[in-house]
Each structure stands twice: as structure tokens, then as C-alpha cells.
Amino acid sequence: MDAGSLNSSATKSQSRNPLQEQFLQRRNSRENLDRFIPNRSAMDFDYAHYMLTEAKKGKENPITSSPSREAYRKHLADSFNMNRTRILAFKNKPPTPTEAMFSDSSASVQHAKPVKARRYIPQTSERTLDAPDLVDDYYLNLLDWGSSNVLAIALGNTVYLWDASEGNTSELVTVDDEAGPVTSVKWAPDGRHISVGLNNSDIQLWDSTSNRLLRTLRGGHQSRVGALDWNNHILTTGGMDGRIVNNDVRIRSHIVETYSGHHQEVCGLKWSASGQQLASGGNDNLLHIWDRSNASANNPTQWLHRLEDHTAAVKALAWCPFQANLLASGGGGGDKCIKFWNTHTGSCLNSVDTGSQVCALLWNKNERELLSSHGFTQNQLTLWKYPSMVKMAELTGHTSRVLFMAQSPDGCTVASAAGDETLRFWNVFGSPEVAAKAAPKAAPEPFAHLNRIR
After folding, report:
1. 350 by DSSP, 3-state: which?
2. Rounded to an integer, what distance in angstroms lies between the CA atom of residue 252 and that of residue 256?
3. Phi-psi region of 167 (alpha: psi -120 to 50; beta: other; left: phi over 0)
């Protein structure tokens, strides 16, 4: 990680407004030009640079550009000093497709049956926000969308909150250089409390409503914490030290379990919907499945399955919403595959070569579809039909690898953040068949104890 770029984050933030909508010329009525597009020779240079650096095993983060190239990019930024004054607000949902055609089921006269219309999938992002100082690091997890419809994003040493309902941006916390940068963020299920992983191995718990630090968890890791996930009152953390720690936030001695199996950085963590199985991926190319219900008394932290099929780092993990034991995983630049697993048996059900680094995965909550985000060469989001894995759409616009994705609470909108320092919103999953607004949730009992634990 470039220390110089981190030290200059405060200066850059002063000259750019985080999470402001970009007002830029459009090529046509449905495309935002949010970045200068280099000429062909510059693009060829990028390709050559990528081919020289990407193939190194275990190196998911390419070498930073030369000083001359950075100076050129800074010159362009100064030349195109845009006025960004309006915070992003969602448009109305896309118009519904025209009615499907009706056809007879046979030559005989029968009642016509409606054919389900194909869903309209916008090919460009609906909105683009500026995200200065977003750390271009494959192993981190810097974006999450909470159940209260507030999106959290870490930009350098600062965590910002963007309220999708109101269109308001606020700053949750800025940590000092000794603790930062922020390396992971994850909302608790209640949508009010949020965990923040730091470069110095600490994990902070915040109340977003009062902007108050409730607790700092220490002692579980020896280096940066790049992966977080919640399982009710258990906050699971994964670090560069290869450790996975279960922290019970209700008690003072918060470390209750430690999983050992990875020997390099843990960059992916996801609990299943039931809370019984945990999937973990690491820079050691390993994917582990941990099962709390099947843990033995002699070794309660022994993995259920150790899966070695990926040939690069495993960060992208997504549990299927319609099949409890189905897990999708994505491999880094040396693997480029999306694999599907039966987590009860540990068998690989399918493997699809995507052609590029897989950075993140999200299931559609309303249809049997999977969305993946990728690195070079297209830096695209790809929508797949499951289980055929036929490509339904490719969404382009980012000019650097799409490192992070998060899904809105209603399951319709996806936010993506990339190394080009932009945050884009896509209406890729359409509208849910049954629209229901969740009732406001009170803070669960585990968090009531945080005020008394220091």
C-alpha cells in the first residue's frame, strides 16, 4: 500500500467533496461520462502494464502507476475541475416493459396464456457519486448497505454515511494515521450499529444514530482487519494474520472462538442466513466452511470443509437466498472463476471461467440470478442467469476494477465502488414481486449492553 498516497488523503479530501453527484456532460441521454477516457495508446499502455504485473501469484493488487502517469492524471483532474453541488437522489424506478404478447398454446382455439415479459435491465448506472481516497485494495471490504437504507463507505481514514431515503451525507468517524486507514465496514442486522475494522488491528463499534463510539475490540488480531460479518450478537472478524475471531459484543471478554485454517490474509467472510455456517476465503487460495452445529466438543473450531479448487485469492462470497446450502465463490486474477458449492457435502457443483478477476458477488433476492463484479479488462458488472450461467447483461462505466458491491434493503438497487474513485448505482435487479416496507426495528438486546462495556 502506497504510504505517500495515504498521507495525502486529508489534503485530497479538502479539495473534493465525498459522495457528491457528478455533473458531467453525457454522450447521450442514457450515459454519464464520469471520467476522461484516455486515447488508444494510453489504453494499450494500461493493458501492457496489467499483463506484466497481474500474473504474479498471490498479488491481487497491481503495482501503482509511475509518477509521470500520476502527474498526468492530476493534471487532468485539475483541468476538469467540476462543480459538484447536489447530493445524489434516486430517480423513480425504470418504466415497466410493455405487455407481453399472447399466443395460442396449440392450433386449436384455446384461452391465450400470457408470456412473462423480459425484465428491462438498464445498461448504464443511474447515478454516480464522487468517492475520493477510496483505497484500491482487493483484500479490503469498504462498502456496505444497512437495513435502514443507509450506505456506509470508507474513504481513506474516514467512514461516510449516505442516507438513500433522504439523500443526506454525514461523516461517522475519521481515525488518525496511526490507526488508519479504515480497512472494513459492516452494518449490524439492526441497521443502526456499525462495525469498523482498522489497519492497526482494532475494531470499533459505533451507534450511527448518535454518532457515538460504543466500544473498541482489541486483542483478536495482530494486523489489519479486512473482513467483517455479523451473526446476531456475534461479530466475526478476519485479519491479515490469517485468524478468524468470533466476538460476543454483549460481554467484556469478547473473544469467544478463534478459527485457524488460513495461513494468509482472510479477505472474505459470510455467514449463512441460518447463522449455522460460515464461509471464509483467503489470499492462500483456500475456501473454508465452518459449521457451528456440527462442531465437536474436542475441537469446536475445526472446519467442516477445506476447499482448494480456486487457484487465486478468494474474496467474493455469496450465500444463495433460495437454497440454504448453496454458496457461490469467486477467485482472483490467477483464477477468474465463479464456483458453486454444496456446503453440506463440500462438492463443487459448477465452475465458470469469467475471464477476469472476480471482486464481488451478489444474488438477486427476487429472481434466480447472480451479479458479479470484475477487474481488467472491462471492469464490468455481469448479470448471470442461474443455473445455466448464461450472461443476461454486462454493465460498464467504471474505468478501474469494481472492487466492492452492496445491495439495497429492498433488493432492487446495487451500489458499486471501484478504483476509479467513483460510487455507482445500478437498477439491475428490478422491482420485487411483492413490495412490502419493513417495520422499523428496535435495537436488539445485545447492543443494550454496549454502553456499559468499555
Report:
1. strand
2. 11
3. left
